[in-house]
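Recall from the previous chapter that SMILES is a line notation for molecules. Here it describes NAP.
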Amino acid sequence: MQRVIPRLGRNGPRRICAVSYHDMATSPGDQTDTRLADLSRYIYGTTRLGDDKIQFADRVKMAHAAMDAGVWFHTSHQYGDALKVLRAAFDADRKRVPRMIFKIGWSTIQELRQTIQQNIEPLGVDHMDIGQLCLGGKLAEEFASGGKCHDDFRKLREERLVHRFVLEVFPWTSRLPLAALRAGHTKGVIDGFIFYLNPLQRFASNELWDLLQERNEPIVAMRTVGGGDVHRLRDVPGAAWKDYLRQRAVEIAPLFERSGCKTWPEFCVRFVFGFPQVRTTVGATSRPENLRAFLDAVKTIKPLPSDIQSQIVSLQYRWSDQTDLHAEPWSM
Ligand SMILES: NC(=O)c1ccc[n+]([C@@H]2O[C@H](COP(=O)([O-])OP(=O)(O)OC[C@H]3O[C@@H](n4cnc5c(N)ncnc54)[C@H](OP(=O)(O)O)[C@@H]3O)[C@@H](O)[C@H]2O)c1
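With both inputs in hand, we obtain:
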């Protein structure tokens, strides 16, 4: 069954590509570009494994449930004691260690090598399938101008310490990835871009977002459900960690209600996979039933009704101009 998916820009549809429902379910994205095409459609985000209010044994059980599902994991040594939980889960059966994306950074190549060790040693693994470059300071500037760090990244690949790289983007860091992409410096080094992308957040600036679409750059979408159920974010005081999220939930809830989607995860997954560049969505949970909801949502992915998809896209252009672009680093 064929359905025409408009590629949406600020002023509505820009280009048209045909994708079949079957393709959407199994391998969304440009069929000729294989970068990151091997990622599972859903990636288990491990932040909730670091929540010490939950019994350690229950968190290990949760990790095992995600391992049983055969999906990729996204993790970091910054997520409380999540790496300890993962180590316990992996040690029960080393043959089932999942493929993983790790956060690495920050301002120098020495620091970056250090963060690699801080992540792989506690897990007893010898490499990273994908390193998420969280660049700041000198290293970010060097990257944007095509400097020496590109050789350092290639070296890490040759050493088989990091097999592939994706570049992290925030609204307040979009300028440098944009410069790097424009100048062609990401070619051959970066396999894709990773940022918050869900109905409530699109953390690449409008300019960068347009260029990512134009260049057909693979995207790893983060925070599948934008932090939780949309009605809860809208209605329960304190559920949204910042008021801008509550305000966005007020605008998005009516679109969700009109969409015909049975669940919020279904709506979120159908929204992000409406962009052919999106390879996967990263969502966290500490509950087996919510893991099941994520897995169900990616089983068969149908596009959202096109008017709903384009209304969210328009909202995200407005939010980016009005709020994201002016946000202090780490304030949202
Ligand atoms: N800079 C970065 O690299 C960065 C930043 C943020 C996130 N991440 C990655 O992305 C992952 C996800 O981010 P996130 O945890 O911030 O956002 P998220 O996945 O959108 O939200 C997770 C929250 O939603 C709840 N939830 C899960 N499924 C649900 C459902 N079906 N219905 C209602 N609520 C549900 C979870 O609670 P329960 O535990 O109760 O299910 C949890 O509190 C992280 O684990 C991390 O791997 C990376």
